[in-house]
């Protein structure tokens, strides 16, 4: 066999592997409703395959046929956990509605993805969702806010993503904000790299957060994740730290905010709108107004090395402190004003 023929066979073999990998990837779309305090019900449809219907409390973990995804409905009949054993399957929650739900301090969030490398929530509405202070005896306090949690697992050896697009969170809150050993994460969305090996990218686009609250990140909390937030609106959100966004990342994690609006945000500690711990930070073409915090009325960074002046440009700041920390100076191309 010539070397040319050997090379062709090698390429064909590689293409066959790619083809088989793509063929084995399932595309799943779930539409779920839990309205006015009622139990969750809905369907999960596998592209070209089976439709699975569900309602209320389950009795264990159930597979979605034709996929490597299982789902579990919590005993409360409203919270749903998706667990993914494959890094190829694509799971989207689309056009779902959650309203008038109260979960106690130990129950899981309404939607949780574990080990899911291609998960998304789109065109979905969360309204009047509360994590209360109620805490049954001997229960373990949840580390998440009441809505969406995304948690990495050891099976995720490759890079993975989560996205929120055109989703609305209105009055999604934790009843009392308090710094504690178990701080709740993300009043609307929490994304944690956790045990995964691959790098993580979370993208939030065209999403609206209004009156959301949590201990860390009134709207969004990320840990070990690169985060991009585009064309998104934040209004009257609050937290102990990071009134709207609480970002924690390693040195190579990227945090980008572009064309966003932050209005009347509050943190009792740092970052009325945004608190940044590590990573590399960019804000462009965004409006911030009426931030309140002990440090960093609108934005607070735990280290000035998180950005250079050309990374915070063309923003409008109204009633915000002109320094992100006592060490960082205002960046170029910004407009600072006071009402």
UniProtKB/TrEMBL annotation:
Signal peptide (UniProt feature, chain positions): 1-23
Keyword terms, alphabetized: Signal
Protein name from the UniProt record: Ice-binding protein 7
Species per Swiss-Prot/TrEMBL record: Chloromonas sp. KNF032
């Amino acid at each position: 066999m010539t070397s040319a023929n050997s090379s062709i066979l090698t390429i064909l073999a590689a293409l066959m592997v790619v083809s088989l990998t793509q063929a084995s990837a399932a595309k799943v779309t779930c539409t779920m409703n839990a309205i006015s305090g009622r139990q969750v019900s809905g369907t999960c449809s596998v592209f070209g395959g089976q439709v699975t219907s569900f309602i209320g409390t389950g009795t264990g973990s159930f597979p979605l046929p034709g996929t490597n995804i299982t789902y579990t409905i919590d005993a409360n009949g409203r919270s749903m956990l998706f667990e993914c054993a494959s890094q190829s399957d694509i799971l989207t929650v689309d056009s779902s509605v959650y309203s008038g739900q109260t979960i106690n301090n130990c129950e899981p969030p309404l939607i949780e993805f574990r080990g899911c490398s291609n998960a998304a929530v789109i065109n979905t509405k969360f309204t009047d969702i509360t994590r209360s202070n109620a805490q049954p005896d001997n229960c373990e306090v949840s580390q998440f806010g009441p809505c969406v949690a995304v948690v990495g697992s050891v099976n995720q050896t490759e890079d993975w993503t989560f996205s929120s697009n055109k989703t609305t969170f209105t009055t999604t809150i934790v009843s009392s904000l308090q710094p504690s050993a178990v701080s709740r994460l993300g009043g609307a969305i929490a994304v944690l790299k956790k045990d995964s090996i691959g790098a993580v990218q979370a993208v939030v686009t065209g999403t609206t957060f209004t009156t959301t609250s949590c201990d860390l990140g009134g709207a969004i909390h990320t840990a070990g994740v690169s985060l991009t937030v585009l064309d998104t609106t934040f209004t009257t959100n609050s937290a102990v730290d990071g009134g709207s966004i609480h970002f924690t990342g390693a040195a190579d994690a990227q945090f980008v905010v572009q064309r966003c609006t932050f209005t009347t945000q509050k943190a009792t500690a740092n970052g009325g709108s945004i608190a940044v711990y590590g990573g590399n930070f960019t804000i462009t073409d965004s409006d911030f107004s009426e931030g309140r915090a002990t440090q960093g009325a609108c934005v607070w960074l735990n280290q000035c090395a998180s950005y250079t002046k050309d990374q915070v440009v063309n923003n409008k700041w109204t009633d915000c402190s002109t320094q992100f920390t006592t060490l960082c100076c205002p960046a170029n191309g910004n407009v600072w004003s006071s009402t």
